[in-house]
Amino acid sequence: MKYLLFCLLFSFSAFAQTxxxxxxxxxxxxxxxxxGQFTLTASTRILVSPATDATVRAVAQTFASxxxxxxxxxxxxxxxxxxxxxxxxxxLAINKKLALGDEGYKxxxxxxxxxxxxxxPKGLFYAAQTMRQLLPLSQSAPLTMPACAITxxxxxxxxxxxxxxxxxxxPVAFVKKYIDLMAMHKQNTFHWHLTxxxxxxxxxKKYPKLTQIGSKRAETLIGQYSQNYPQQYDGKPHGGFYxxxxxxxxxxxxxSRFVTIVPEIEMPGHALAALAAYPELGCEPTKAYxxxxxxxxxxxxxxxxDKTFGFLQDVxxxxxxxFPGKYIHIGGDECPKTAWKNSAFCQELMKKNNxxxxxxxxxxxxxxxxKFVNSKGRAIIGWxxxxxxxxxxxxxxxxxxxxxxGIAAAKQKHAVIMTPGETCYxxxxxxxxxxxxxxxxxxxxxxxVYGYEPTPAELSPAEQNYVLGVQGNVWTEYMPTSEDVEYxxxxxxxxxxxxxxxxxxxxxxxxxAQRLKNHLPHLNPIPVNYAKxxxxxxxxxxxxxxxxxxxxxxxLDSDSQIFYTTNGKEPNERSNQYIGPITLxxxxxxxxxxxxxxxxxQTFTLHKGKxxxxxxxxxxxxxSDPNSTKLTDGVRGETPRDRRQWVNFFxxxxxxxxxxxxxxxxxxxxxxxxxxxxxxxxxxxxSIAISRDGQDYKEAIDQPVKYELTGPWDILPVVADFKTAxxxxxxxxxxxxxxxxxxxxxxxxxxxxxxxxxVVE
Length: 761
Fold this sequence. Notes:
Elements: H1 2-19, E1 30-40, E2 45-48, H2 54-71, E3 76-79, H3 82-85, E4 90-94, E5 105-109, E6 114-118, H4 121-134, E7 143-152, E8 158-164, H5 172-184, E9 189-193, E10 195-196, E11 199-200, H6 209-212, E12 216-217, E13 228-229, E14 238-239, H7 244-256, E15 260-267, H8 272-277, H9 306-322, E16 327-331, H10 338-341, H11 344-352, H12 358-375, E17 379-383, E18 396-399, H13 404-411, E19 416-418, H14 421-424, H15 446-450, H16 461-464, E20 467-472, H17 482-489, H18 492-501, H19 509-519, E21 537-543, E22 549-555, E23 563-565, E24 576-577, E25 582-584, E26 588-593, E27 599-604, E28 614-616, E29 647-649, E30 653-674, E31 685-691, E32 699-704, E33 711-712, E34 714-735, E35 753-760
Parallel strand pairs: 2-3, 2-4, 4-6, 8-9, 8-20, 9-15, 15-16, 16-17, 17-18, 18-19, 19-20
Antiparallel strand pairs: 1-7, 5-6, 5-7, 10-11, 12-14, 13-33, 21-22, 22-25, 23-24, 23-26, 26-27, 28-30, 29-35, 30-34, 30-35, 31-32, 31-34
Helix pairs in contact: 1-19, 2-4, 5-7, 9-12
């Protein structure tokens, strides 16, 4: 049966390419396309049983409003009757006999009528969202839905999307829009990150200074964290918080979309905003704590005193009156132990409770909070650091530092939500970092998101049952506006929505991409500032049999053509059409485009060292160049934003390139990164030498590398000119800068340097 459904998915998606039909995301569990279509008119009614509860009527009204907004047609909601049920109408009906769970539904569309059945209003809501996606976008064309039969239910019960409102405050209107987009794609859990070092965003009546003081920071870091040394700030106050009335309003709104909100109140770390308001909660009560103005992890954390626990219990009591869902997220991540190690109170507390180290003290903290939350009939979720020192008895683990935490928790029979950074962190770059909006780092393209399998294969079938689902995380350090959030989140969150809903089994990205391409226009009327990286072009290089460089172009948007130029001019549909690898014979800037908006501009550096082998005299001490290829692959590192192309050296550099034969060498050059705050110091000196036999290096050029420590990050070139030399071997030696100076935040720690592309001319 699974094989049949998989084939159907491909066949109907192919049909959809020309007919704009069945471009459903997430794709249903069981689907059969049929002939014909149902036409909606002004006389069409949305029928609900007169005896049904108000929630079903609300589902019908929500669907009617969505059709009105997208298609301009007003549909009336009416009680069903024998006559109306036989007419050309849409019926929403509760059927308790359906064995599809709380969120499953059956949807049957014929030319004569539409029938949606579910055992709960939630299932009917998801049936309505499927119908919403089946409708065309045009308000001028006939409003039709293609005939089909769908039996659908989700794979995971937890399908989440996170939003950090602490680093940058997000207005209520956008939060509601975010919830709408989640519901449209059948995600059911909104993880609302409300407190952190950079701002406390929720009103707590008993502690007004949390918002009077803790919701405001004096200024915000300019640029990427390590971009400037010393760091620069904008001098502009940033603040904002949600009143309890606003939160109740958002909760009601989410409930109408069957989205449960999980609030997060960070503890014991990420607490600076709270400590700025109430310093007596820290390990240094007389310290003048300030709301953080930059990103990162801070040593100032909650002190595990009775006063702190009383405060947190009061806060959580008010939070639980606002949010009716089962879960309260209590953070638990990135909690430095420095303050606890230096606190006489904490050390005495550890002795009193037979805690062997500060990790067990953190477990003591989490267990005490969990006991209180459990006493109120709720449960806690924590980031996977709550595993350290022993896991609280009933805690659910959110695995973000890879999958190891989730695997460990499931093996201990604890519920797990998978959200590993490498596949679920939507604050990472999704396209070329040199041209994308500034982000925290990392690289997570759309196809990598879609390729993620949330249930680890390392778990037994019984252990796999502890995996509740999957969540996308959105940290807003570099997203100051809601438009920035939309750009980073969509459509990657849509890919996560599909893998959380569809049954386990093979997935085909090309099929998903085609449906997504036709689905994205549905976001335009909302509107959503989604990224168009689906249409991007990427380039890889390879040598041909003659040793020439070939460039292969590829794209996720598989059905569009690529046009390119190699003369620096802007490509268009009259330029060369790409049909196979492009052979380059000299250094070339390749520019390419697709009619759907894909673009590529990339320079390929051809030189005598291109694709030549090289050796390290000493181990590099890192994994940045495991195959010894990056330094001569013809692709230069473009920006400090993207470290994938750069090779790191944590000691001195001693690399020898073998050109294969004795040849003329007139110039050797390479670049070094300068990112002082990240401990990436350019080398103090570079020696470049050449040799015919690999033994006698007579012609050597030694030069110091001079630069200012202060200022923005940079790329520093080093060039050695050889007039009429001939050589087979090129040796580069570079001297590490040693340790960070006394005024550096990491004073005394070892520096490293990063380099790329040894160009031999």
